[in-house]
Amino acid sequence: MINRRKFLKACCGGAAFGLASGLGRFPAFAQSAPDYKALVAIFLFGGNDGNNLIVPNDDAGYASYARSRSGLALPRGSLLPIQPRSGGRAYGLHPSLPKLRAHFAAQRAALVANVGTLVQPLTRDQAVNGSAPMPSNLLSHEDQQIQWQTAQLGPVQDSGWGGMVAGRLRGLSPAAKYPPVVTLAGTSPFCDAPETRSAAIATDGSTPIAGIDPNDGSPLAAAMKDLLAADTGQDLVRLASDRTATAFGDAKILAGALAALPPLTTQFPVTDLGQQLLQIARVIQARQALGLNRQVLFASLDGFDTHGDQLATQGPLFAALDDALDAFVAATAELGVANQVTSFTLSDFGRTLQSNSSGGTDHAWGSHHLVLGGAVRGGDLYGVFPALEVNGPDDASDEGRFIPTTALDQYGATFARWFGVADADLAGIFPNLRNFSTPTLSLLG
């Protein structure tokens, strides 16, 4: 699934659309329409091990963690200490996340504990015995990636919740010239919904269809236009041609909007995620020229399927995430939209608390996630942190597969409500939300 996703990302992202290539509490360096908002989802493909993202840093909590993690436990002295505003135990972040720690201390970042796909709240007995409804294919990368992006936990997933959230609010952008949903990760179920259109753009400034620019007046461009205009009488061919022509039109509109704007002064890291977030910042910069008051944007970072050698693999991944998110936060401040852009992580699932024989971890269930932005009630941990005990009260197995205590539906509905989706519309996007007494978290102002 990971290799297939990379292939789709390379083909769809590069072929469909081209793209020209100590903050306090976010002072604004530019002005923005007060009703503008953007959601930026960052999918950590492979299943991020949240157990080493945030670690209990009190004596008893760390001892329980170290006992269960054996060779994968981070040394206590290497942790970056944090103390949630709401009190309780102290925690430590992975040592590769110093910039995130600074944003947490400045109340621009929050953590949400033990989030996962859930049909309804579950006890350990129900999860172990299968005596209550549960998501299908819990340990499958492909199934869980799709379920996380659609919030549809059964055999049919036909709409992404990012696309549906944007679709509910398309009336707020009556002068829109460009799709409100953008993916930097190729074909993404998160972005697909019948009520709105999405665009895929590349991270490297490539022009559409492997270098063909249909607007440059070249013979190749003329041939492409003739091909798109041909009526073959075949519905599927006509549909594909229409979509390709629409893609070319979108690319021209975006390129024109960006050409009229100055380059960002914020420096982004030259990494895959860094360049994705740079292009997302540029699309946000062009929001007024594109006529958009709401935008949903999707990026990704690969490599979190750490079945072996996890300590050596996860550290650089977290460092790349740390650097890219820090630059993106700075860019939103530069653009004057820091309080209007909320970024958050998604991932297939968590990983087992217990390590395996290869110095890695196996597929699990609930995991911890990051949320950043000026609207975040930051410096705090939301949700219920699991007991880090193999065969403990939160373990659905005998390896430390934690039963989520915050449902994906609650997590996603929190962003949707902040974005402006009416409460009456939330259940139409998150079908299991009605099964939870608290539909949203209090992490956004």
The gist of it:
With 445 residues, the protein is an alpha/beta fold. It contains 14 helices and 12 strands.
Q: What is the topology?
A:
Elements: H1 2-16, E1 37-44, E2 54-56, H2 59-69, E3 80-82, E4 91-93, H3 98-105, E5 109-116, H4 124-129, H5 141-150, H6 161-168, E6 181-183, E7 198-200, H7 208-211, H8 219-229, H9 235-259, H10 272-285, H11 287-290, E8 294-301, H12 310-334, E9 341-347, E10 367-372, E11 381-382, E12 406-407, H13 408-419, H14 423-429
Parallel strand pairs: 1-8, 1-9, 5-11, 5-12, 6-7, 6-8
Antiparallel strand pairs: 2-4, 3-4, 5-10, 9-10
Word description of this protein:
A hairpin with an 8-residue loop joins β3 and β4 (91-93). The protein has helices at residues 2-16, 59-69, 98-105, 124-129, 141-150, 161-168, 208-211, 219-229, 235-259, 272-285, 287-290, 310-334, 408-419, 423-429; strands at residues 37-44, 54-56, 80-82, 91-93, 109-116, 181-183, 198-200, 294-301, 341-347, 367-372, 381-382, 406-407. The chain contains 14 helices and 12 strands. The strands form 2 sheets. Strands 1, 5, 6, 7, 8, 9, 10, 11 and 12 form a 9-stranded mixed β-sheet that branches. Strands 2-4-3 form a 3-stranded antiparallel β-sheet. The chain starts with a helix and ends in a 16-residue tail after the last helix. It has one domain (2-435). It is globular. It is of the alpha/beta class and 445 residues long.
